[in-house]
């Protein structure tokens, strides 16, 4: 490390472990750094970065409670509180694959595993600070949101042979900047030219992004599959694949891809939020419940640890209970109550009275206390909608629909839909889900809990047309429920046999989906015997 340069630099250390902080201070002083500030908490770090310019920030990953360093850096990037010219270095004693994936995904300037020697620190800091200094004109242009100027600076940089060791990084920045300028075709040609010389992973990723933007989806999918074979790019491949699948409205496949990515790097909350929305769109209530719980688990003691995420676990458990078998319902109700208890323990001053009333009303409905649920919902103030979150309003719409107030539920969904359309920050997936809920609740007057029972009664009374229609509605909102799939399959087979029809394309699609759900789930002995009889009937109809 050049001591004269180090003397001019200002360093911020974010660490709450006294011994680690002392060793780092000693090491930095040995390397020539003199202007060193120390903070222990995320809030102090944000204040320091807003008050002073730092050339270097060294942050403990496991700051305070397990993961606050991780979320601090995420927030600094999202809020643009960290200048592009400032080097950010993570240090961590935990080098498990999960932690490393989580850190690398955030793309800090450097990651240093504890314990490290002064020599290790010298080598890493020298490299990252040299890079920041040499590329400073490019970073400044990007920071000032002048991508065209940044492109000019990159081109100038690439004409200097003395900068050759940083050419790969500059080329990577060029591709990203071409995309930022909206020059998609030019970016595509650029990435292809790079790959023809050397097959960099970043160039493959860039080329996939251009394919997706240019609607060359087949080419994108082929390259994603190739990328997934590379161990260091599997996570990015799953993310790109899920993005492509969402674009193509292949939501079940997208949920599977997001889940795979989450297993590799579980601390990414945005990915869990995407899984939550995809689960709701695909009516996969168990996956929705699991995604909501993972958000609480990984947000614990971070800036994302808020009352709303505990409420969402309770809401998801009730959604699941509405569609589950009776033996599961009581357990899910208990888990909803547990989540509310954790909320009250962690946030005793949180103003969530109305949201809890809605959850309580839904629990009452699950317990067949419909009139009590109605009475509790009547206590709510409709004038406070503007102050309520989208999730709170969505749960309220579900509660009103369940007790029979369909028009009121649709009115609430209208408010949420308009809010989402007016807010560019709102997730497109969430809007898609709200619109789906609105469409389904306009067509289906019964709650999930009532639908199957109503259809069974109609079927037993010989009203096959009404039973079939209601079973189809039930299967629309509960496509993972094997009992409902079996009932729909039976009603479909009976209708085809009664009307002496062969299986056509539409019926074949319904039959295939029902059988997929049945064979993926668990049946009782009686249901299994019934399923075999239905399959025999269907075989005769071909």
From TrEMBL:
Response regulatory domain segment(s): 10-129
Gene3D superfamilies in the cross-refs: 3.40.50.2300, Tetratricopeptide repeat domain (1.25.40.10)
Keyword hit for Aminoacyl-tRNA synthetase: no
Keywords assigned: Coiled coil, TPR repeat
SUPFAM superfamilies in the cross-refs: CheY-like, TPR-like
InterPro entries in alphabetical order: CheY-like_superfamily, Sig_transdc_resp-reg_receiver, ST_Response_Regulator, TPR-like_helical_dom_sf, TPR_rpt
TPR repeats (start-end): 448-481
Coiled-coil regions, chain positions: 363-390
PANTHER family in UniProt: TWO-COMPONENT RESPONSE REGULATOR, TWO-COMPONENT RESPONSE REGULATOR ARR22
Protein name: Response regulator
């Amino acid at each position: 490390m050049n001591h004269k340069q180090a003397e001019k630099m200002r360093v911020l250390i974010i660490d709450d472990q006294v011994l680690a902080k002392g060793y780092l201070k000693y090491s930095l002083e040995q390397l020539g750094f003199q202007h060193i500030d120390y903070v222990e908490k995320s809030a102090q770090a944000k204040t320091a970065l807003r008050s002073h310019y730092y050339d270097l920030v060294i942050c403990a990953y496991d700051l305070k409670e397990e993961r606050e360093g991780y979320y601090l850096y995420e927030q600094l990037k999202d809020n643009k509180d960290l200048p592009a010219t400032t080097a950010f270095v993570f240090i961590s004693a935990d080098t498990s694959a999960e932690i490393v994936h989580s850190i690398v995904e955030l793309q800090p300037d450097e990651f240093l595993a504890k314990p490290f020697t002064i020599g290790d620190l010298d080598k890493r800091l020298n490299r990252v600070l040299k890079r920041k200094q040499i590329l400073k004109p490019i970073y400044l242009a990007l920071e000032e949101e002048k991508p065209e100027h940044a492109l000019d600076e990159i081109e100038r940089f690439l004409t200097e042979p003395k900068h050759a060791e940083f050419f790969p990084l500059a080329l990577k920045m060029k591709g990203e900047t071409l995309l930022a300028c909206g020059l998609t075709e030019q970016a595509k040609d650029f990435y292809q030219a790079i790959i023809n010389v050397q097959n960099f992973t970043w160039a493959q990723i860039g080329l996939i992004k251009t394919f997706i933007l240019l609607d060359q989806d087949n080419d994108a999918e082929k390259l994603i599959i190739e990328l997934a074979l590379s161990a260091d790019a599997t996570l990015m491949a799953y993310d790109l694949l899920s993005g492509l699948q969402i674009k193509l409205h292949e939501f079940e496949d997208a949920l599977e891809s997001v889940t795979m990515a989450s297993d590799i790097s579980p601390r990414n909350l945005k990915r869990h939020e995407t899984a939550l929305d995809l689960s709701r769109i695909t009516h996969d209530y168990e996956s929705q419940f699991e995604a909501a719980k993972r958000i609480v688990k990984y947000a614990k003691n971070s800036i994302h640890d808020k009352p709303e995420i505990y409420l969402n676990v309770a809401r998801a458990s009730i959604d699941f209970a509405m569609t589950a078998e009776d033996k599961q319902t009581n357990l899910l109700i208990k888990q909803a109550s547990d989540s509310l208890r954790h909320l009250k323990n962690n946030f005793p001053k949180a103003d969530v009275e109305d949201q809890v009333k809605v959850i309580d009303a839904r629990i009452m409905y699950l317990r067949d206390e419909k009139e009590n649920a109605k009475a509790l919902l009547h206590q709510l103030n409709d004038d406070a909608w503007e102050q309520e979150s989208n999730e709170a309003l969505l749960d309220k719409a579900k509660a009103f629909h369940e007790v029979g107030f369909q028009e009121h539920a649709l009115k609430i969904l209208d408010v949420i839909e308009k809010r989402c359309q007016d807010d560019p920050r709102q997730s497109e997936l969430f809007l898609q889900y709200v619109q789906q809920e609105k469409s389904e609740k306009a067509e289906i007057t019964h709650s999930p809990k009532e639908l199957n029972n109503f259809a069974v009664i109609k079927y037993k009374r010989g009203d096959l047309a009404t039973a079939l229609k209601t079973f189809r509605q039930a299967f629309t909102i509960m496509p993972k429920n094997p009992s409902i799939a079996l009932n729909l399959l039976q009603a479909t087979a009976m209708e085809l046999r009664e009307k002496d029809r062969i299986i056509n394309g539409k019926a074949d699609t319904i039959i295939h989906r029902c059988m997929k759900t049945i064979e993926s789930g668990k049946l009782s002995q009686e249901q299994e015997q019934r399923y075999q009889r239905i399959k025999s009937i269907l075989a005769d109809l071909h």
